[in-house]
Design brief:
- Helix content is 35%, strand content 8%.
- With 345 residues, the protein is of the alpha/beta class.
- The strands form two sheets. The protein has a five-stranded parallel sheet with strand order 2-1-5-6-7, sandwiched between helices.
- The chain is elongated.
- The termini are far apart.
């Protein structure tokens, strides 16, 4: 009897111990679950399913739509993918049949093409026409009588995507089949590579260097527009040396060609300057371009002054194609008119 009683006491103690262990284990599990939920709430994930998550994407200022993460749509040294190509890259201007908006994404509302008056005062440090006419007398082309369409028809335009737009918008003789625009097949030319890369030579549909194209064509006049990409990664010495080398190459290949260096165009207030291009850099670069023109004995054309808005600083919104950098048809008309009325006689 004593033996059975002892055994019953042992069994009771064992059951109580197992119960305590189970309760303790359950308590530990509950504590771990609670701690995990608290940690998720502290790390930025909403603990309340009805609470909205934070979206850090920034609306595209051009289209009003959400912009996916991208690196940049400007060129840096070693990149040839930023600007428009005839094969479908629509970062810059693409060939069009009449629409002025050529951005890659559709614009939800038509751009306002009415230039509104601004209370903003003109920025200091923006060189004026008078500055160039005084400091670069004999180099900067001044106001003349309208030289007419024939004058434009005899010019070869060499440059980056701001030049390619003349073809894309069919602004020149023979429109999209014009022989007047010289750029690489990708639609743009980096100043830092201008003497080494191949251009698309429209006369024969070959890819050849600037020197070879100039040697074959012997243009009577050439307008060069380069540097908008270069301001993002080139200093003054690099910029001027590259431009000087290009002019020397063209002069050697075609000594009788009249060469005009056109100013870099400003960007609009909507342009994303975090990409390394802004109007302060462009204004400085235009002085460099004029210095190169003077030093090399060629001409300088300050077209930028005709493209600015009422602030005297930004590209007129009605002249840009939606990305804040490239011109639309109205902008190119303004450019060509300035060229015709500041002729190289």
């Amino acid at each position: 009897m004593n033996i059975n009683k002892s055994k019953n006491n042992q069994d009771g103690f064992f059951y109580k111990l197992m119960t305590l262990i189970a309760v303790a284990a359950l308590a530990v599990i509950i504590i771990l679950i609670a701690a995990s939920a608290s940690h998720r709430g502290d790390s930025g994930v909403p603990s309340d399913p009805s609470s909205p998550a934070t979206d850090n994407r920034v609306p595209d200022v051009t289209t009003g739509q959400e912009e996916p993460p991208v690196t940049t749509d400007t060129e840096t040294e070693g990149s040839d993918t930023a600007e428009p190509t005839e094969s479908g890259d629509t970062t810059g201007p693409e060939e069009t049949t009449g629409t002025n908006d050529t951005t890659a994404e559709p614009v939800t509302t038509p751009p306002d093409t009415t230039q509104k008056p601004s209370n903003e005062q003109p920025r200091e440090g923006v060189p004026t026409e008078e500055t160039f006419f005084t400091d670069f007398k004999g180099t900067a082309l001044e106001l003349t009588e309208d030289a007419g369409q024939e004058y434009i028809d005899n010019i070869i335009f060499l440059g980056d995507s701001t030049t390619y737009g003349l073809k894309a918008y069919r602004m020149l003789k023979d429109e999209k089949d014009t022989l007047q625009v010289w750029t690489p097949l990708n639609g743009t030319l980096l100043l830092s590579r201008a003497t080494s890369v191949n251009l698309y030579y429209p006369d024969t549909k070959e890819e050849i260097t600037v020197a070879e194209a100039a040697r074959r064509k012997k243009p009577s006049m050439m307008i060069i527009t380069l540097g908008v990409n270069g301001v993002s990664f080139m200093n003054k010495t690099q910029f001027k040396d590259a431009y000087t080398s290009l002019i020397n190459v063209i002069k050697e290949a075609s000594p009788d060609t009249k060469i005009i260096l056109q100013s870099v165009f400003p960007v609009s207030a909507k342009y994303d300057t975090s990409k390394g291009i802004d109007n302060d850099k462009i204004n400085a670069a235009n002085i460099w371009v004029a210095e190169v023109a003077q030093e090399c004995g060629v001409k300088f054309l300050y077209t930028a002054t005709a493209l600015r808005d009422s602030t005297g600083y930004y590209l007129n919104e009605s002249y840009q194609n939606g990305d804040g950098l490239h011109l639309n048809e109205k902008g190119f008309e303004k450019e060509l008119n300035y060229i015709r009325t500041h002729a190289f006689n």
